Amino acid sequence: AFGDREFVAANIVKKDGWYYLFYLSCSNALGASAESCASSRSITGPYTNASKQPLAAGSDIIGGQPFVDEDGTVYLIYTRTTGGNQTYGAKVILKDGTATLDRSTETVLLTVTEEWEYARACVLECGFIVKHGGLYYLLYAGGNYNSTYGVGYAVSENPLGPYTKYD
After folding, report:
1. Fewer beta carbons within 10 Å, N or C terminal of the chain?
2. Which residues of the chain register pLDDT less than 70?
3. For the residues of 125-151, what is the DSSP string, one character each?
């Protein structure tokens, strides 16, 4: 599969008899970390990614958290590291063991707006959606792990926003 080392942040989704493992890994060829997806017919693997490519070429996408809505639509919530970490979302097409990020649906979900999110660097990351009572709750981390790092949440009526941060 894609990556040479530092395989972290694994998340699995099952769809149509396939298990899709979203993960972050470092690539020697790319010289950076990137989000990718490997698949298997078994939860215990082995997982493969025949293309050995990240979800987006030359990607600055990290920390992908899949969310499967009630209608079966799959979304990936992730961080883009260019220009300060911000939280994005997009639909992801899962078919026959292959994951394709639908970049035409890519949406900025959250940007740094709160003082605690600016601690030492502009950071919003690790977005994770929970649906409850017809609303989508987007939990995220902000700030900097060397100072003020915390968790916030925002609410929307749609998985791709717009989101309103909780006070």
Report:
1. C
2. 58-59
3. EEEEEEEETTEEEEEEEEE-TTS-EEE
